[in-house]
Amino acid sequence: GADSTALLHAICAIRDQLRGPVTAIHINHGLHGDASGWQTRCEQFCKHYRVPLVSQEIEPVANSGQGLEAEARRLRYEAIASQLGPGAGLLTAHHADDQAETLLLNLMRGSGVDGLAAMPNSRPFGEGLLQRPLLEFQGNALRRYLDENKVEWIEDPSNQQVEHDRNFIRHEIIPLLERRWPAVSQRLLLTCGAMRSARRLLEGLADDYLAANLVHPQVLQITADAGSNSELFKLAVRRWIRNSDLPSIPAYRLESLFEQTHTAGEDRQVSVEWDVCALRCYRQQLWLLPRGDIEPCPARQWPEDKQQLDLDDIGRLVLSGGLSGKLPGNLMVDKRSSLEKDVILQGGRHKALKNIFQACGIPAWLRDSIPVISHAGEVVAVGDLFFSDRFANLLSGHGITLNWRPRNALLQYIQAQQNQR
Q1: How far apart are CA 288 and CA 221, in angstroms?
Q2: What is d(CA 161, CA 41) in angstroms, rounded to the nearest whole number?
Q3: How far is CA 62 from the centre of its chain?
Q4: Rounded Cα gap, residues 334 and 401, in angstroms
Q5: Predicted TM-score (pTM) of this structure
Q6: Rg, Å, the chain Cα set
Q7: How many CB atoms lie within 10 A of CB 50?
Q8: For the segment 272-315, what is each residue's pLDDT rounded down to a tens digit?
Q9: Cα–Cα distance for residue pair 415/173, rounded to 1 Å
């Protein structure tokens, strides 16, 4: 297209001033009958200007649920990101008219400050950086540049199809606005700039809150002011999720999370799920689970001649400082919900594991991921967090230490919290 052609031509004109090599990339969507011809044209252009070209084919699926245009865009950016090594930069030819269209599109979608800030000048992308150096230029200026330099380009006929929202704005709405307010794209750029300033201010506020209350990368303490202030709550949670490189939480899910958190009792379980993520709240702490709940502890018998027992993602149980033969045989490790007896003898009294977990502030959805050790049907240890009187005495008497070494970051956090008690 004209925009990308103008950008590549301009880059070639200043190539000697650049610190690194330039490579062009062409993504063939295969959605138009002339797609192969367009690819050939790109190859000829790059050969003429001595620019290496990477061509890649993608196959957008119309029934993906996102719409063909959105799916093609997602696959295109995935393909390009796969080509970027550390420190590389992707330059795109988005210009002022594109920025104005993006602002109006997001306005029609009911977007907030982020959407009305439209496209940023640069952002992290893959292992490198995506940059848009032409956002201050209008599209007709780029075409004048091509005409002046006698450079031809290809016009994608789909750009004229007004059934696409962006094309409708481009061909119907923008010209109408320009008849009343000339240079409307430049006017809308001022709005984008104001929204970016507002976003930076809000991001700073959110970052201050996260710096003070993010007790673990996946655990956020909800203070009284955020718990009663929906705007501060939602601002901090959105920023936290974005910093975690996870899919954005839908607005209605975030609203539901605040309402549940605001009205929940101390031990009531609160959760929302979206995409491949979940947020759960327990005792004024939000837990961010990128892949849903952590796997439960697998059932294992601990052989008498082994000083270590592997529990897959739950980690390992390790004996040290003595001989495993000093321990009783037939030790079983399992998750709490599979136990016949859900009590442990501690301090001369039988205590329900549920009450122990509650006293230690361990959320209900994590309790099955903590290994429980039993002997002859009697619970004798919960990880290395709690021991029955008899088992603790046995370990101490033989100079044996039992350590649980979890692999999961949240289980490591739970263990560290208990060690501080």
Answers
A1: 12
A2: 23
A3: 25
A4: 20
A5: 0.72
A6: 29
A7: 9
A8: 898 888 999 888 899 998 776 688 999 999 887 788 899 988 99
A9: 58
